[in-house]
């Protein structure tokens, strides 16, 4: 693509992001630096449409960007944005208030991102198998139902109701919890699971009732948690303000997807192996319900081996420069805070 076509594509995308209306050649002719006539701009727009970067929703209308056009814009034409000093001060003050407490950060960051972008802000916790055990306890709720309370090294508290075959006394549950903390505190759940499977194979576990209870309850909890990921979304009602989602059927499918968080987590997990800020646009999500959406995601570090994701979800007609800059800044700041505060 030559420089003139790039400039026209960028002007169209920026204008469309601001107005939500198809952009005509006359509008571009007035703002382009080269001073091209509307007819010349129209020829370039036709070429861009043939190449798949633009679409014309109606014969008499101007052009709008396609997903391919947005992709080219994000990869090639996007320029780093400056975070306004007032927004930067708000982010710095809000995150410093957490004191490196990850649970509090998970509540604050989605609200911050939603407020600063007028989109949906989200944070996804690291995979549970990477969580490091600090404390665990079991509470008898029913003769075959036990509530497990797990606290990881960063202070995140998780609850899980597990069903058990045996009717445990509360005293036995407390001893099993103490045993697991004494033996395995400081290990990841993945490592603990491996150790418990090894203990199950030992003859001692058959005769030592305390060990047997701890192994049974611990493995039952880990089996239930191993595929779980915590996702916090904030600002889902912001989507309703965008005309792209005014159709009730589109809106219904979208909110169903928000309810089925595992679909979003699956999509977000595809980004986690990539360093830096990543952008997924419309059809690239490979999910019809998310076809009009774009997401901006960046990994953050909880410690030297644990990584989660945070970012922004909104329509493909998104202010990418601002979203990419904010997501990148907050992920770096959060990583710095979490790794500088011992858990």
- The count of β-strands is 10
Helicity, as a percent range: 40-55%
User: What count of helical segments does DSSP give?
Assistant: 13
Overall pLDDT score: 84
Strand order of the largest sheet: 7-3-10-9-8
The radius of gyration computed from the alpha-carbon positions, rounded to a whole number of angstroms, is 25 Å
> What is the 3D shape?
elongated
Order of helices and strands: HHHEEHHHEEEEHHHHEHHEEEH
Q: How far is the first residue's CA from the last residue's CA?
A: 51 Å
Query: What is the makeup of the main sheet?
Result: 5 strands, antiparallel
Low-confidence stretches: none
Tell me what portion of residues adopts beta-strand conformation.
15-25%
Describe the structure.
The structure is a single chain. This protein has 343 residues and is of the alpha+beta class. It contains 13 helices and ten strands. It has helices at 3-19, 25-31, 38-50, 67-77, 85-98, 102-117, 170-184, 189-200, 204-207, 209-225, 248-259, 261-272, 320-340; strands spanning 54-55, 64-65, 120-124, 133-142, 145-152, 157-163, 231-234, 278-281, 293-301, 307-315. A hairpin with a 4-residue loop joins strand 5 (145-152) and strand 6. Helix 1 packs across helix 3 (38-50), helix 2 (25-31) crosses helix 3 and helix 6 (102-117) runs antiparallel to helix 13. The longest helix has 21 residues, at 320-340. The radius of gyration is 25 Å and the shape is elongated.
């Amino acid at each position: 693509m030559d420089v003139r076509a790039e400039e026209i594509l960028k002007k169209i995308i920026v204008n469309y992001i601001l107005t939500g209306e198809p952009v005509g050649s006359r509008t571009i002719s007035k703002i382009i630096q080269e001073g091209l006539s509307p007819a010349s701009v129209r020829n370039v727009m036709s070429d861009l449409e043939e190449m798949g970067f633009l679409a014309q929703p109606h014969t008499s209308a101007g052009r709008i960007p396609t997903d391919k056009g947005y992709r080219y814009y994000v990869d090639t034409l996007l320029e780093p944005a400056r975070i306004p000093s007032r927004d930067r001060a708000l982010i710095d003050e809000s995150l410093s208030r957490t004191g490196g407490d990850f649970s509090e950060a998970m509540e604050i960051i989605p609200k911050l991102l939603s407020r600063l972008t007028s989109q949906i802000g989200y944070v996804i916790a690291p995979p549970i198998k990477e969580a490091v055990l600090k404390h665990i306890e079991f509470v008898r709720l029913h003769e075959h139902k036990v509530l497990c309370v797990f606290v990881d090294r960063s202070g995140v508290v998780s609850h899980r109701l597990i069903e058990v075959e045996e009717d445990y006394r509360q005293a036995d549950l407390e001893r099993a919890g103490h045993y697991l903390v004494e033996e395995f505190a400081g290990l990841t759940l993945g490592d603990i699971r491996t150790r418990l499977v090894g203990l199950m194979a030992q003859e001692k576990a058959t005769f030592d009732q305390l060990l047997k209870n701890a192994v049974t309850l611990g493995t039952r909890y880990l089996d239930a948690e191993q595929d779980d990921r915590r996702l916090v979304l904030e600002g889902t009602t912001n989507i309703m303000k965008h005309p792209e989602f005014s159709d009730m059927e589109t809106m219904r499918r979208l909110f169903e997807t928000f309810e089925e968080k595992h679909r979003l987590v699956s999509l977000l997990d595809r980004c986690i192996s990539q360093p830096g800020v990543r952008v997924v646009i419309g059809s690239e999500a490979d999910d019809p319900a998310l076809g009009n959406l774009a997401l901006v995601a960046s990994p953050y570090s909880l410690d030297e081996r644990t990584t989660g994701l945070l970012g922004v979800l909104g329509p493909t007609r998104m202010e990418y420069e601002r979203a990419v800059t904010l997501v990148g800044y907050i992920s770096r700041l959060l990583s710095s805070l979490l790794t500088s505060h011992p858990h």
